[in-house]
Design brief:
Distance between the termini: 28 Å
Order of helices and strands: HHHHHHHEHEHHHEHEHEHHEHEHEHH
Number of domains: 1
Helix content: 55-70%
Radius of gyration: 21 Å
Bound molecules: flavin-adenine dinucleotide
Structural class: alpha/beta
Shape: globular
Number of helices: 19
Largest sheet: 8 strands, parallel, barrel
CATH topology: TIM Barrel
CATH architecture: Alpha-Beta Barrel
Number of strands: 8
Oligomer: single chain
């Protein structure tokens, strides 16, 4: 038993709790896949080949469905994901639904994303115990070019100006639907060169829609060196409304560094992982200290950060299901954290992406890279799964001896 477990009573390493919703066959498949993902070079080559094959129309769907899709996707549609959501809920964990499509500049794709987001809200309203949040991407509702130009303070031409107006029309519709259904929306954070305009937009809508409850959440990426100062300013400005904040470390380290180097501007990301960790935990404390007016979603697989929040809640005598506090981990990752927190009474929503495999490929590639040899994540997942498989084997042997 770890000291933290002993002092808080919260166990975030209990694989029996973490994997109770998965049968042994599923766990064995997950184990094999995580082992394969450890070969970083293989992952990089497969991602490149996979993207090319899909572009050329080579049928990769069956292979993806049996591998990365099975590990990280809820299904290809909301209906297909329903059994998984019910299984998670049966073990005390709800869902943050995510339609796994990427940014698009095409109006037809943007309209399709809007329609799907509305369907997600209706689905969440119909299944309030299963779904706690709906995640959305503003780059799915308006083109990345629009967000880039707005972020750079550039004047928009007539086409982008029209798209900007259309975006506000779409986003307002979405928020009205979310308000009516009482389903909170979480806006994902994207690359830094798009983010300023996304931040400004979300802040202005929080000001309108978060007056009596937290309906809209922004996402803050703490790997960015400027984010702690930004968070403090955001809190200082939000006097007449509540803030919704999803705290993440950030998903685009390599892409951010590469662009900064190519274009000759300072790297916006903390130089080391330790720097990102310190910034994340400082932001976490800042939010926890203002929990009366911040709806906080602690979106991380980092055990130490989760434990800091747990200790703070215990120290301040908060009920674990404090209405402003929730945790979230991606589906397919860090199950012992999610289910351990849920078992201790905290609100946990698994981030479950769904969507056509082809469109979800970029999401699946990112998960594959995150779990490749470049990170500690696959090591952690493998250790947990191995431990659980071993535990089940011993249990089986013990029963047979009786
Ligand atoms: C529910 C949920 C929602 C998410 N939504 C978003 C989103 O909207 N936008 C987004 O960008 N990401 C999002 N992410 C992904 C997130 O940003 C991280 O990439 C991922 O969660 C891994 O970080 P961690 O805190 O879980 O764990 P850890 O494994 O402790 O940290 C890994 C992270 O540390 C940082 N890092 C690693 N190496 C270095 C280095 N050398 N220098 C500096 N920093 C480094 C990176 O941010 C890396 O992702 C989301 C994650 C979750 C769980």
């Amino acid at each position: 038993m770890s000291i933290l477990h002993a002092t808080t009573g919260v166990d975030l390493d209990d694989t029996a709790v973490g994997y109770a919703y998965r049968d042994t066959a599923e766990l064995r498949t997950a184990y094999l896949l995580f082992r394969l993902l450890r070969y970083g070079a293989l992952v990089k080559v497969s991602n490149t080949l996979g993207a090319t094959a899909l572009r050329w129309g080579i049928p990769l769907k069956p292979l993806l469905q049996k591998t990365l899709g099975r590990l990280f996707l809820g299904g290809e549609s909301l209906e297909e994901s329903l059994p998984l959501l019910k299984r998670l809920h049966a073990h005390g964990v709800s869902t943050m639904l995510d339609y796994a499509v990427e940014a698009s500049s095409e109006t037809s794709h943007q309209e399709a994303a809007l329609a799907e987001y509305k369907r997600m809200i209706a689905f969440a309203q119909k299944n309030p115990d299963l779904v706690s949040f709906v995640a959305i991407k503003l780059t799915a509702l308006a083109s990345p070019l629009l967000w880039e130009k707005l972020s750079a303070g550039e004047k928009l031409g007539p086409t982008l100006e029209k798209e900007h107006q259309l975006f506000h029309h779409r986003f307002s519709q979405l928020l009205e639907a979310a308000a009516q259904a009482q389903i909170p929306l979480m806006v994902d954070a994207e690359e830094s060169w798009l983010q300023k305009a996304i931040d400004d937009t979300v802040e202005s809508y929080m000001c309108r829609f978060n007056t009596d409850r937290v309906l809209l959440y922004t996402t803050i990426q703490m790997y960015r060196r400027d984010r702690l100062a930004y968070l403090k300013q955001l809190i200082a400005r939000a006097q007449s409304y509540k803030l919704g904040i999803k705290l993440v470390r950030g998903a685009y380290v390599e892409k951010e560094r590469k662009r900064a180097q190519e274009r000759g501007y300072p790297d916006p990301i903390h130089p080391t992982k330790a720097g990102t960790d310190i910034a994340y935990d400082a932001a976490l404390m800042e939010c926890l200290e203002h929990i009366d007016r911040i709806g906080l979603c602690i979106a991380t697989h980092n055990r130490a950060s989760c434990m800091k929040a747990v200790q703070h809640a215990i120290l301040h005598n908060w009920p674990p299901d404090h209405p402003h506090l929730s945790f979230s981990q991606l589906y397919g990752m860090a199950d012992p954290l999610s289910f351990g927190l849920a078992k201790a009474g905290f609100r946990v929503a698994k981030y479950v992406p769904y969507g056509p495999i082809r469109q979800a490929f970029p999401y699946l590639s990112r998960r594959a890279e995150e779990n490749s040899s470049l990170s500690d994540q696959s090591g952690r997942e493998l250790r947990w799964i191995q431990e659980e498989l071993q535990r089940r084997k011993e249990l089986y042997r013990g029963k047979n001896r009786l």
